[in-house]
Amino acid sequence: MRPTPAVRFAAACAGVAGLIGLAGMAGWIFRIPGLVQWVPGTTPMHFNTATLFVAGSAGLLGLVARRPWLARAAATALAAVAAATLAQDALALDLGVQEFGGPAFVPGFTEEPARMAPHTAVAFLLLGSALFLRSARTAPGAVVLLSTLALGAALVPALGYLTRIDTYGWGEQTRMAPNTSLALLLLGTALLATVWRGDAASSLPPWLPIAIAGLALSITVYLWQGLRQQDGAAATLSAMVLLSGTAGAFLLAALTRLWRSNAGQALRLEGAIRELQAEVDRRTKLQEELQSLNRELDLEVQRRSHLAEERRLQAEAANRELDLRVRELGRSNEELERFAYVASHDLQEPLRAIAGFSGLLARRYDSALDERGQEYLRRLVGASVRMQEQIEDLLRYSRVGTQGGQFRRTPAAEAVAKAVENLRAAVDESGARIEVGVLPVVYADPVQLAQVFQNLIGNALKFRKEAPPRVHITSGAVPEGHQFTVADDGIGIEPQFFERIFQLFQRLHTRDAHPGTGIGLALCKKVIDRHGGRIWVESQPGQGSAFHFVLPACPPETP
Amino acid sequence: MTVRILLVEDGPDDVALTREAFSESRLPHELLVARDGIEALDFLHRRGEFAEAPRPDLILLDLNLPRKDGWEVLAELKAEPELQGIPVVILTTSRSEADYRRAARLGADLYLAKPVDFEHFLDVLAQVERFWSERLTRQPRADGPHPPPAARC
Q1: What is the greatest pairwise CA distance in chain A?
Q2: Which of A352, A357, A455 lies closest to B114 in CB terms?
Q3: What is the model's pLDDT at position B146?
Q4: For a Cys-Cys bond, which of A25, A208, A270, A522 suits A504, CB 3.0-4.6 Å?
Q5: Residues A180 and A120 sit within 8 Å (Cβ to Cβ)
């Protein structure tokens, strides 16, 4: 336990009292009058008294240091010696108490024979009892009463010495020494201090009326006793002092009690007010925190809306950029288309002149040429026709992206039927068998889808073996959408050409073996790309080919 | 009865070839030539040097022309009550379906793609003759132009 200020105060008082006692003992032992008799012409402190101060001091220090046995032993010694002294004086016996424990009377050392004053003995008895009760942890009331009575016993002589009015003795009995009264005051105060609990601010101790009453009563009694010894009208005065002092003591006690309860109420009220104030403060603080939070929230909301606005602006800027790019792309596509259109027209004009006039030459002047001349002329016409076809194909290829139709729900079976119808002549000529499975309805450009089937089926008829070809057209669902397959039993393709055949004007065969410009599969790829799908081939040379393409369930927007 | 044909064509080779092809035709004809759109319209409106120009029975119109292209000529022709009755045959290198539709929308009576070699060119002119003879027997015509020949694959 950390010692409270009151405990430290008690220890200090007890220590000083002990030192005064030790000084007295030393004075007796080493014959130093100044340590025993502080003021010349007054009573010296008796050796017994000095011893009891040392004992009392030790007891109090023991109490403070939580050694109750020490306090109890000291208290017993104090009470026993004091009681014996009083008994000896009252019964006029010599119990040898005055010489207890030391060099009692040394002739010539002091002016008067050293004795313990009955006054002092009473005070020691009271203090001893109080210390005993305190060490036994009884209620503080009795301790306080006994202590204050002892304090009063010491205070009256002390005041007497200060005012030079002889109130420090009873009748002709030995007087109390000034150092004794001081030490007694210190011990009594120390004992009271040990009873003091807690901090003075919280509340006044409940035993305060007792203390005040005890002190007043004690002072009254000792004062009365002291005054009784004075000359003259002292008798009536002392009686008046006794009466008024006693009445005053009770009045003071009552007043103190009232004041204390009022003070207690005031304190409680104050406490309530403080609590209320604290509550108000707490709520104010909470409200401030709430307001601060609200402000932060407002800021956050503003910040976020700011951010959202910024993002919106960014998105708008990005969209504008995208629009611009799309428009640019569209414009460049248009330009490309126009270029292709004009170029093809301008290219076709001289070409048609070459083909036309060579045709005219062949028609009108054939007989004028020899066989070799006629052969040259045929080659001239053939080359012009091929070039014209290539220009046409190039144009068609460029138009897939720019002049394609809208995507709409298209039954794939209808597209296949149209393709087969367009290929009627080739089908009849080759004697092909075309088997069509159950085909789904897809979302596509119907004209272009028919074109794809026409090119794939056309290839199957063109790159056939000797026997009449068989073509299977099937479909199945895949995660992305619908997969179509056009499989044949034709001459097949070597794996190294699987990619190449989808490029523009790439041919695997001589024109003599299989005529054509090499546009068909490139056109298919471009159409399927436009639909957001993909196309590929599986084939083994001599075993036939299977062209697969996938149309997504949801193709991109119609360009 | 001689058919008076106005050929609107800027290429001299094409003009010569057309003349040659028609020379093999059984159809009695007179071939007049305008070299661009403005000349063609002046001819039809009998303006300037063409004040005395005869009214053609049939117009063969190329689309790609200098100064004023075939589209504009076609549109102006068909907007003119006096001239809109003259059948117009579009004779062009374009095989684009879009061009075909556009010509039909503007009121062309026949749309023919120019072939590259002379033999086919003769076939095309045979179609013009057929169109003309049908028109003579079944006037007035109400149906649209014939579709273009199927594109070769």
Answers
A1: 192
A2: A352
A3: 52
A4: A522
A5: yes
Tokens representing B152 are 């070769």
Q: Do B118 and A363 touch (CB under 8 A)?
A: yes
B15 min Cα distance to partner chain A (Å): 10
Q: Closest Cα partner for A497 from A511, A488, A508?
A: A508
Q: Residue B112: beta bridge partners? A: B91
Q: Which two tokens stand for residue A367?
A: 């007989």
Positive or negative, the CA dihedral B72, B77, B79, B85 is negative
For A71, the enclosing helix (H) or strand (E) is: helix A68-90
In the beta sheet, which residues pair with residue A270?
Answer: none
* CA distance to partner chain B, nearest, from residue A480 (Å): 31
B119/A350 touch (CB, cutoff 8 Å), yes or no: no
Quick check: B59 and B103 in contact, CB under 8 A? Answer: no
Paired with B33 in beta bridges are: B7
Residues of A in Cβ contact (< 8 Å) with B118: 355-360, 362-363
Q: How far apart are alpha carbons A223 and A168 in whole angstroms?
A: 9
Please state the pTM of the whole predicted model. 0.43
DSSP string, A413-432: HHHHHHHHHHTHHHHHHHT-
- ipTM associated with this complex: 0.73
Instruction: Name beta bridge partners: B59.
Output: B6, B88
Give the containing element (helix H, strand E) for A486. strand A481-488
* pLDDT, average across residues A358-380: 87
- Does any CB of chain B come closer than 8 Å to the CB of residue A110? no
| CB spacing of B95 vs A395 below 8 angstroms | yes
Which strand (E) or helix (H) includes residue A436? strand A433-436
Residue predicted with more confidence, A405 or A525: A525
d(CA A491, CA A497): 14
Question: Do residue A363 and residue B116 have CB atoms under 8 angstroms apart?
Answer: no
For chain B, say whether A341 makes contact (Cβ under 8 Å). yes
**A268-280 mean pLDDT:** 89
Contacts of B95 in chain A (CB under 8 A): 392, 395
Short-list A514, A513, A448, A528, CA closest to A480? A528
A24 and A49 Cβ atoms separated by less than 8 Å: yes
One-letter identity of residue A331: R
CB A537 within 8 A of CB A545: yes
Coil, helix or strand at residue A547: strand
